[in-house]
């Protein structure tokens, strides 16, 4: 391939800029031209393209967000929208595209490939909910952001002997919640993947802890498992322990990416360009046991990642 495009799609994630930088410079080093496609699939359909050179990606490695911006593009869910994207790409001489995004974006990438535009997906989402990869770009940075916030909340919870209920992102996946529950020593964690009994799993540990003289509690809830505000109200009403809710929201989506995310993004960007340079499309780049690999998009999307029971078991044991 002589000319490729790169776009970011869906929920943005810290590290996406590092991936864009890697794609651009790896392609240029292979003698390829690179087109930045702005605003995800919306930009592809509407021809929002910008020629990229080595300088186009200077001073972005350390920045959160995506310099190409992102979008959620309902039109692309229809084959007519996909075909418009392929036609626009071909009109610009683009022979392949790198899509940096989550599972929804990969479904669009699959459709692009099937419609005749070879596409390679790079997993960029803070949710870490892509089954074929051990981790996604943005997950490590989001964990660090949440950890810093929870450590601050723990200070005031200890001062006032309160129960803090922290709501983190993860509509369909509880990876952020489960990991920070261990890293921050939560008494309980609620995730969408696992049902729970409010009395047994939340109220009893608080009441028992109070009897043992425990002066404050930390409950982590993934947004897909419940609302921190309602949970805090119920805890205070039933146990009499003062409870305060914090919904961390979109601070989890920003910030300067960690070294791990910059490395992961750089490695995945190089691999994606190598695939397109070899004329391969319809692939998802992944990391397995620290090796960068790739899968057919459909196969990759079909792979399920189960919440490791040991992670959840560790969270409950260590919170005793
Ligand atoms: P993420 O990629 O973070 O999961 P979304 O689920 O919002 O984010 O998907 C991003 C974009 O990908 C959507 O706005 C849409 O344009 C496209 N997309 C999502 N699902 C599909 C699908 N099933 N088929 C085609 N395109 C899709
Ligand atoms: O997919 C990443 C994510 O941050 C989810 O964790 C969250 O539920 C969703 O995006 C929020 O989407 P939006 O930015 O459109 O509100």
Outline of the structure:
The protein is of the alpha/beta class and about 325 residues long. The chain has 2 domains: about 5-140 and about 255-300, Rossmann fold, CATH 3.40.50; about 140-255, Phosphofructokinase domain (Rossmann fold), CATH 3.40.50.
Key words describing this protein structure:
binds 6-O-phosphono-beta-D-fructofuranose; 2 domains; Rossmann fold; four-stranded parallel sheet; seven-stranded mixed sheet; 320 residues; single chain
The total strand number stands at 11
What's the CATH class label of the largest domain?
A: Alpha Beta
Q: What fraction of residues sit in β-strands?
A: 15-25%
Radius of gyration: 22 Å
What does this structure look like?
The protein is of the alpha/beta class. It has 2 domains: 3-138 and 257-302, Rossmann fold; 139-253, Phosphofructokinase domain (Rossmann fold, 3-Layer(aba) Sandwich). Helix content is 43%, strand content 18%. The protein has 11 helices and 11 strands. The strands form 2 sheets. Strands 3-2-1-4-5-10-11 form a 7-stranded mixed beta sheet, sandwiched between helices. Residues 9-11, 41, 72-73, 76-77, 101-105, 107-108, 111, 125 line the site of adenosine-5'-diphosphate.
Any chance you could write out the topology, listing elements then pairs?
Layout: E1 3-8, H1 16-29, E2 33-37, H2 40-46, E3 49-52, H3 79-91, E4 96-101, H4 103-114, E5 119-123, H5 139-159, E6 163-168, H6 175-183, E7 188-190, H7 198-211, E8 217-222, H8 228-239, E9 243-247, H9 259-277, E10 283-288, E11 291-296, H10 297-302, H11 309-318
Parallel strand pairs: 1-2, 1-4, 4-5, 5-10, 6-8, 6-9, 7-8
Antiparallel strand pairs: 2-3, 10-11
